[in-house]
Amino acid sequence: MRYLLILILTIFIGVCYGQNFSYPSLNTKGKSITDFVPNGWTIFDSAHGDLNKDGLEDLALILQYKDSVTLVNNEEDTVLTQPRILVILFKSHIDTSFELKEYSNSFVLKHDNSAMDDPYQGTTIDKGILKIEFHLFYNMGSWYSTSSTYKFRHDGKTFVLIGADLSNIHRATLDYEDYSYDFLTKKRSYTKGNEEKGTRKTSVKILTFPSLKTLKVFKEPYSWEVESGVYL
């Protein structure tokens, strides 16, 4: 009975702690990277590169909370996870300091399911494009494996989604579907095939979008039904 009470108390404390969790405010300017890392957080990943075409190396940081907390996700499930923040810093022309240009508390997926691998794969900056990659691989409950890459570019004011790639494969049959979106040209390339049989068929379609999505609007991966039944 004593151990049962301890377990219940531990769960109760964890749930309460998660309910009281709030994301921190970030410094708008800093002399070093550590000035943008709040207490209780650590740098989980980072990428260097010029994002605003000024010849200086900017930074994209993935911050992760050091402790696990219980949160309610978009499916209204209570999960145990370590929150993450995407932080984008522009380097100053005047000195070696940095300016906070943009951040997101929701776009970088958290590892909140024990039945799946960590969905976050990495962040890179290449030719002014910020690329963020994810991979959904479940150890149980699904035969499908999903990979995606999101490409953002700074337009002088904010970061806009200019392209994205989405790939689904059935791990038993090896049937796959690949989608590649160019939101500047409004073209979508779709490939369907089978890895074992070597079959492959590709088609291109022009899609209509009212406007480019921004990092501020596109809150979380796999939440946008870009086409009927296709979630990007």
- What is the radius of gyration? 20 Å
Helix content: under 10%
Mean pLDDT across the residues is 91
How many structural domains can be distinguished in the coordinates?
2
Q: Treating each run of at least 4 consecutive H or I residues as one helix, how many helices?
A: 1
Largest sheet: number of strands, sense, barrel closure: 7 strands, antiparallel
What general outline do the C-alpha atoms trace? globular
The sequence of SSEs as H and E is HEEEEEEEEEEEEEEEE
Structural class: mainly beta
Query: Which regions have little confidence, pLDDT < 50, spanning 5+ residues?
Result: 1-18
> What is the number of E strands?
16
**What is the rounded distance between the termini?**
48 Å
Describe the strand arrangement of the main beta sheet, using strand numbers: 8-9-10-11-12-13-14
